[in-house]
């Protein structure tokens, strides 16, 4: 499967299949994670289920459109450059099938069991698995094929954010208990009547916030996956940012700087690839209209590969403490100028991601709602506990989304509910918590093994 050529009928069929798979993943992400936003308003009778999921779907849609691209490409950068754009121009079919196959299967399995599991965890494990599989295919040590600093940065965000959600929601609940004396906020729902007045609108507002923040963070992940699909299988149109298909945003002197920096400080095993790529940049302003090194200019997919090789090499240099600080800043500046060439998303990709996530939000929520509302704490969820977990969660997720850190809405909100239960002295149902924590712990190794195995098999 490494030898399908782009722009052929077969590659078009594969493009359609992979596009369907990424849309299905985002749809599953929507209904898997929906309960994090709608559990409190449904469980406290603040909104009817249909009203809650429609509101959540609309706000997820808005969140995707309002979000940036930093999270999308924080995930993409976990992949080695030769997987992102194979040097021979062939589409990255094994990568796409491995990513979607591993992430989808584990996501569906945990949803079927009613366990709040992280879609972000699934896709990150699958991406790491592809990097491991690629190292095996090319006979490289796994340390050489994976951007471990980026992996650790992502995993740190995934690990720290639930702790912040747990502690933050617990403290928020205690503050509410101290200053708000309205008993309606601290009592479980009675009968089928919604909470009165401001309590109801507080819960609707917290649901809105979590839904919007979920869209702004998780929507970016699907944007990155869609762009991998489109750029890998439709390179003639989307190998490079359309704004930079006829000239790269670097001057001749900056191209010389890049080559000089790589020549002096890039000691990676893929150094020759990065240096060749740097040579390709040493042209005049209209890079794609003029000969390179006295030869014909490469096609767009090769330029894309060159840019990814250089961006990856400059990133390593900018993070290397052994390199002089002035050179590290220079490498970071040059990398930021080149990134828009390959890190972009057309408007229709954003729209597709938003539609899939919002439509998925409107189905499949009941299994997880029951777990969050009744099975985490020893008492039923109260409005104050729901509002505490969601308001703190929305703040954390929005902050992460705009700083480029992929976090798990599921982890944060579930941990927040547990924190609010502890803050109220309600205690936890440890049987449920053990199942949730087991799924959290197992997700990365399971998806890494599945994805690496699929990639290795498909590549042969």
TrEMBL record:
Instruction: Write down the PANTHER family for this protein, in alphabetical order.
Output: LOW-AFFINITY INORGANIC PHOSPHATE TRANSPORTER PITA-RELATED, PHOSPHATE TRANSPORTER
Question: Which regions span the lipid bilayer?
Answer: 12-31, 52-76, 88-109, 121-137, 157-176, 436-458
A Pfam family it matches = PHO4
Species of origin reads Acetobacter thailandicus
InterPro entries in the cross-refs:
Phos_transporter (IPR001204)
Per the record, the similarity remark reads: Belongs to the inorganic phosphate transporter (PiT) (TC 2.A.20) family. Pit subfamily.
> Which keywords annotate this record?
Cell membrane, Membrane, Phosphate transport, Symport, Transmembrane, Transmembrane helix, Transport
User: Its domain of life?
Assistant: Bacteria
Query: What protein name is recorded for this chain?
Result: Phosphate transporter
Q: Which reaction does it catalyse?
A: phosphate(in) + H(+)(in) = phosphate(out) + H(+)(out)
Annotated localization: Cell membrane; Membrane
Question: How does the record say this protein sits in the membrane?
Answer: Multi-pass membrane protein
